[in-house]
Predict the 3D structure of the following.
Amino acid sequence: MILSIESIENKICTRGLQVMSDSDLAALYKAEIKVLNQAVKCN
């Protein structure tokens, strides 16, 4: 499945920095939220 740039941009929130929620990122990478968060902590 190819995502459009607009669909990704709509999920980015700007609060001084550009951020995305972990659930949106997990969906983007087709991973579980828990696995994504563990990978972030390791890096």
The longest strand covers residues 13-14.
